[in-house]
Amino acid sequence: MTNRTHDAIAFASLTSVAILFPPASLNLLTFIFSIIAADIGSMIPDMDQAGNKLWDFLPAGNFMGRIFKGVFYKHRTLSHSILGTFLIFKFLQFVLEKLLNPGFINPQIILTALMIGYISHLVADAFTREGLPLLFPLKLTFGIPPIKKLRIRTGKFFENFIVFPLTWIFTITVIYLNQDRLIEILNIIR
Ligand SMILES: [Zn+2]
Questions:
Q1: Residue 58: HSE in the Cβ half-sphere, 13 Å Cα cutoff
Q2: Span from the CA of 150 to the centroid of ligand 1 (angstroms)
Q3: Count of CB atoms within 10 A of residue 141's CB?
Q4: Contact status, residue 118 vs residue 95, Cβ threshold 8 Å
Q5: Among 1, 78, 125, 138, which residue has the fewest nearby CB atoms (within 10 Å)?
Q6: Residues 140, 29 contacting (CB under 8 angstroms)
Q7: Ligand 1 midpoint to CA 140 (Å)
Q8: What pLDDT shows up at residue 48?
Q9: How confident is the model over 100-142, as pLDDT tens digits?
């Protein structure tokens, strides 16, 4: 799926999880950064593509992207597997604990938001023709539904004109139906 769809699905997932499992405490920085984190998390699995937006933030990003792509040698391998998800979780946990001052920003919430974005990306990709190499390095791929022909083609009509708008309609509906819950969350922000 394209970046745009992944962004939308990550935001929908973050909103849904926040409503189902509201945080016990939240400050403004954590609130803002968790929204950005879900977005970044949703872009991480496709960092094996040189065109990925995340590389634009780095100097010589596209060059790095090409090298990185070379390391993965093929799109959708380690980063779209259970092993890759576990490794990225451990890596982000380590980095965030070193990087963030818990007095100002809650590393657990940021880590959770990043992983919500990451996992929402994998779930969305499961609906595409390519499927997911969940058990990488084994060559098996998984998809929903299991019959490949019934799945979505990345960047084509169904994704752009059905999945993308439906995701936003879903998010707006969820927000509308859970206003009270969301106001409660906004109220705990210090
Ligand atoms: Zn992907």
A1: 14
A2: 18
A3: 17
A4: no
A5: 138
A6: no
A7: 16
A8: 74
A9: 999 999 999 999 999 999 999 999 999 999 999 999 989 999 9
181 CA from centroid of ligand 1 (Å): 32
Cα angle, residue 7 at apex, residues 5 and 8 outer, rounded to 5°: 65
* Token pair 């998010």 in the structure block, residue: 171
CA distance 18 to 118: 16
Placement of tokens 């040189």 in the chain: 50
> 132 pairs with which residues across the strands?
142
Hey, what's the torsion of the CAs at 54, 57, 62, 64, to 10 degrees? -90
For residue 173, pLDDT beyond 90: yes
Confirm if 69 and 48 have CB atoms less than 8 A apart: yes
The answer to whether 38 and 16 are in contact (CB under 8 A) is no
Cβ atoms within 10 Å of 64's Cβ, excluding its own: 14
